[in-house]
Structures are given as structure tokens and as C-alpha cells.
């Protein structure tokens, strides 16, 4: 009993695009209590994806309370808290930490015109890429701030700080306005100096006085606050428990996959296809993000696109798959197909594409004898092809060791794991930790209070499967699939561009029509 009383635990929180997970871990980073809450995103306005900041905190507080209660641990034995959250987006607060408008998530694309304007200026884009390490999406803070200045400038004037998802949760839990390097990289950080950059702010076309919004910077493991009494009452944590700065969820997941070590490649097939190699090199390229990690001397070169789970979910709905049992049956039928049988080529660009905004999804090579199982395997192959696209880009500058580490929801399917191994021609090992992001957040927090000697040591506790190796007979098949993908995307390029021009002309015509109608009414 005495040893039980002396045991120490650490809490990791992972706040994603639509859900918050909280996990209490023991000293071997084994989960002893888990809590989950949905954090729904409001998409009622076209291109908008946002949620009230209060709702984000409520989801996190309830998930933490559930995890603490489920663990049965004395809250005094939980010695530290780490929080990871989705990157990008925009969370504005005032000087007291109160929200200024809803949280805008990374999936928001209202600032697409602002993103296009920046992309059309090579010199400004060069400054952003070379200084911050990445070309921004419409959901990046810089583009969203430009949109707000055009459409809701009072909201920007009322704000005193710009935060990220995990910062909002930590602010409510422990107080203090701050962020860490891994999230700051996605906005106005100069990665060479690990400091806020007026030049990057200017390159976005933003006024210099917005430097006032940029919060103090910390390494992810810095203790920046302690659990407040009001938060303790909501969460079941003990007042005064140390809370670290936290990190971007990809950094946390990389730790939870045992891959935040230079020369390791981690692939995640989740809401995004995330493909990152840990490095100390500062190489930049439009095809990947060079993000500072939990400390400034460590980076992840990360090439991503929203081409994984969202694409699979769409296809399953299209095929009439409505429950887990039907999904399992269809996966079993797809796995039973001859591995070398030709299936439809699927370009999974339903919501995003690394080939540009004009690219759309496609289904090619369909035959009358193809069944839903063929379409499903083709979709899985299409998602695997995005790992190929992203890792080919990374492979031009970086080397990595084998086996490749794979995680994410789709990685629970053995068929998918084998397809990844076959396509990459590399052994693939699958992370067995249920919540890699929460694991990583807990590992950093535990290291900060001496529970682990280092984050590297904590990663040795990650459980991974026996590597799955590529089959010899699949080499020729996958060479053909990859060649077909390259040929199809090249052939469709001009068609995509023409469609984009037509849509732009139609949109301009609609605007002209509205303005003309408005002028007519005014004259009357």
C-alpha cells in the first residue's frame, strides 16, 4: 500500500479538430484513466469552421474530470499536466484571457482569397517560407487575421493576444497567456532565431502594431502555470499541479510514436495525412513545413494534406456503410481480394490536395465487375499514395531509418498497414498506444518534473508492433499504381486549371451581377 501511495502519475491532454482526449498515465506511461469529449465544429457558414472557446474549455474540463475519476488516482499523485492541440487557426483573447469571438479551427477556409493573394506574390511568399519554414494555408493565423481586418476589424482591435488551441485550454486550467515554439512556427516566428518576426508579419500584409498580439514564447516543457482553484473544482485535479506550455499535436503524436528522434519518419493516417521526419536541419520547401519542435534545436519536416480519414469516411457514406459492423465486413471483403488485382484509381482530393486548390477528387479505371470492396481498396490505396507523394518530397532532402512508424485511426486496419509497407517498400511498425498525442503531452510534462530522465527516455516506453514487411510480389503492382497516379495527375492538371478559371469567372460574374443590381436599385 505504501508504494501505491508514493506512485506518481502524469496527465496528457490532446485537443484535436473535433474531440478532446485526456489520459492519466503511470510512471511507465501506461494509461490508467481515459476521458473523451466531442468538441463539435460549427460549419453552418460556408468555408467557416469554428467553435466557442468556452465550448472548447468545457470539453477539455469534462474529459480531464472523466480521466481523473476513471483512474481512481489521488489527484495529489498527478504531478504534472501537458496539453497538445491542433495547430493553425486563430484564438483571440483580451488581456484578462476572455475570448474575443469564437475559436477558428485549422479547417476553416474563409481566408482563401487572402491566401491566394499572398501566394501570388513570390517575394512575400519567399519571406514567409524562408523565415517561418512553411507556406501558409487559408487556415493559418496570418491569413485569418487579414480576413478579420477586412470583415470584422473591431474583433482584432478588441484582442490583446493571439493563441492556439492548446493555449486556450491551458489558460483556463492554469492561467497565463503564452504559447510554445511548435505552434508559433505556423504564424510569425523566425525559426532561425526562435523569436517573433516583424518581417514575417509584414510579408503577410499585416500592420506592425499587431506584434502586440504575439504572446511570450516557451519550450514545450517549460512550466508556465499551476492548476487554478476554479479549474481544480471542474476537473478533479489538485490545486497547484504544474502545467507545462504544451505543444502542437503533431509533435506530441511523434513522441507518442517514439519518433521524435532525428532520422525517424512517422506517418499518421488520421484527419490529415501527416508525414514527418525529425531533424535538426533547417531545410525549407513549399511541399513541407519545417516546424520547430518541443525546443528550438529540434524540428519536424512535415508534409501534410487532409486526404486521409475525411476521404475514407466520405466514400464509406457513399457506399451506404452506416455502422461499425458493415464497415468491418467491407474491410474484410477488400482484404480478401487478390492483392495484385487491379482496383479503381482514387485521387482522394475531396477536401484538400498538395497539388493545389484547383485539384479535385477523381475515380478512374472503374469496371462493371468492380464491387464496393474494390472501391474501398482503391480508396485505401489512394490514401497510401498520399504518403508516397509526401515522403517523395521529404526524401529529396532527408534520410530516415527503418522501420517507418505508422499511426492514426486507419492504421488499425491490417490491410492498410500492409498496403503502406508494400507501397513504401519498407518495413512498417504500428504504434500500439491508443492515444499517441496524449502520451506525448504526458511524456513532456513528466520530464519537466523529473518523472523521466528525458523525452528521449520516455519514448523508449512506446509500444510498437512487430514490423510488417512488404511482399516481394507487390513490387511490380505498386510501381504500376504509382505510375498511374503520376500520369493521372499530370493529365488532369490542365483540366483542373480550366475548371478553376471557369469557377473564378462565374464567381466574378455573380459579384458583378449583384453590384449591378444594387446600382439599379440605388438609381430608382
UniProtKB/TrEMBL annotation:
Carbohydrate kinase FGGY C-terminal domain boundaries: 267-447
Keywords, alphabetical: Kinase, Transferase
Matches recorded under Pfam families: FGGY_C (PF02782), FGGY_N (PF00370)
Ranges for domain Carbohydrate kinase FGGY N-terminal: 9-256
Keyword Kinase: yes
Presence of the UniProt keyword Transferase in the record: yes
A GO term for molecular function: kinase activity
Record family assignment: Belongs to the FGGY kinase family.
Name the record gives this protein: L-xylulokinase
Organism (species): Herbiconiux ginsengi
Amino acid at each position: 500500500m505504501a508504494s501505491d501511495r508514493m506512485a506518481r502519475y502524469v496527465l496528457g491532454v490532446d485537443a484535436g479538430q473535433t474531440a478532446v482526449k485526456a489520459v492519466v498515465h503511470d510512471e511507465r506511461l501506461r494509461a490508467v484513466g481515459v476521458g473523451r469529449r466531442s468538441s463539435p465544429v460549427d460549419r453552418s457558414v460556408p468555408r467557416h469552421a469554428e467553435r466557442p472557446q468556452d465550448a472548447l474549455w468545457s470539453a477539455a474540463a469534462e474529459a480531464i474530470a472523466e480521466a481523473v475519476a476513471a483512474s481512481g488516482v489521488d489527484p495529489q499523485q498527478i504531478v504534472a499536466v501537458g496539453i497538445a492541440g491542433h495547430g493553425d487557426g486563430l484564438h483571440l483573447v483580451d488581456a484578462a484571457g476572455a475570448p474575443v469571438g469564437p475559436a477558428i479551427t485549422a479547417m476553416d477556409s474563409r481566408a482563401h482569397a487572402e491566401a491566394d493573394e499572398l501566394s501570388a506574390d513570390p517575394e512575400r511568399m519567399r519571406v514567409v517560407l524562408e523565415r517561418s519554414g512553411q507556406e501558409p494555408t487559408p487556415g493559418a493565423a496570418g491569413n485569418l487575421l487579414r480576413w478579420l481586418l477586412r470583415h470584422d476589424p473591431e474583433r482584432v482591435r478588441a484582442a490583446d493576444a493571439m493563441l492556439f488551441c492548446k493555449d486556450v485550454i491551458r489558460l483556463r486550467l492554469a492561467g497565463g497567456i503564452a504559447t510554445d515554439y511548435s505552434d508559433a512556427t505556423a504564424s510569425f516566428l523566425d525559426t532561425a532565431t526562435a523569436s517573433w518576426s516583424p518581417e514575417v508579419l509584414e510579408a503577410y500584409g499585416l500592420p506592425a502594431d499587431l506584434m502586440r498580439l504575439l504572446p511570450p514564447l516557451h519550450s514545450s516543457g517549460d512550466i508556465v502555470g499551476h492548476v487554478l482553484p476554479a479549474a481544480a473544482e471542474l476537473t478533479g485535479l489538485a490545486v497547484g499541479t504544474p502545467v507545462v506550455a504544451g505543444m502542437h499535436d503533431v509533435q506530441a503524436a511523434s513522441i507518442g510514436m517514439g519518433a521524435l528522434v532525428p532520422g525517424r519518419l512517422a506517418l499518421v493516417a488520421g484527419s490529415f495525412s501527416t508525414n514527418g521526419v525529425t531533424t535538426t536541419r533547417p531545410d525549407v520547401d513549399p511541399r513541407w513545413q519545417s516546424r520547430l519542435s518541443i525546443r528550438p534545436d529540434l524540428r519536424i519536416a512535415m508534409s501534410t494534406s487532409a486526404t486521409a480519414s475525411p476521404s475514407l469516411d466520405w466514400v464509406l457514406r457513399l457506399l451506404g456503410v452506416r455502422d461499425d459492423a458493415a464497415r468491418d465486413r467491407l474491410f474484410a471483403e477488400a482484404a480478401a481480394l487478390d492483392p495484385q488485382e487491379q482496383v479503381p484509381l482514387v485521387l482522394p482530393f475531396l477536401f484538400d490536395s498538395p497539388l493545389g486548390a484547383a485539384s479535385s477528387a477523381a475515380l478512374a479505371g472503374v469496371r462493371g465487375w468492380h464491387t464496393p470492396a474494390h472501391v474501398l481498396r482503391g480508396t485505401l490505396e489512394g490514401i497510401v499514395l498520399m504518403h508516397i507523394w509526401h515522403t517523395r518530397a521529404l526524401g529529396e532532402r532527408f534520410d530516415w531509418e527503418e522501420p517507418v512508424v505508422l499511426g492514426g485511426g486507419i492504421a488499425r486496419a491490417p490491410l492498410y498497414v500492409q498496403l503502406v509497407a508494400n507501397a513504401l517498400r519498407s518495413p512498417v511498425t504500428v504504434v500500439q498506444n491508443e492515444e499517441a498525442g496524449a502520451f506525448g503531452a504526458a511524456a513532456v510534462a513528466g520530464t519537466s518534473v523529473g518523472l523521466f530522465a528525458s523525452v528521449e527516455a520516455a519514448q523508449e516506453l512506446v509500444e510498437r508492433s512487430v514490423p510488417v514487411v512488404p511482399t516481394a510480389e507487390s513490387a511490380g503492382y505498386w510501381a504500376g499504381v504509382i505510375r498511374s497516379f503520376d500520369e493521372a495527375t499530370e493529365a488532369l492538371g490542365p483540366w483542373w486549371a480550366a475548371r478553376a478559371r471557369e469557377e473564378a469567372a462565374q464567381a466574378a460574374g455573380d459579384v458583378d451581377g449583384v453590384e449591378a443590381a444594387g446600382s439599379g436599385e440605388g438609381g430608382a
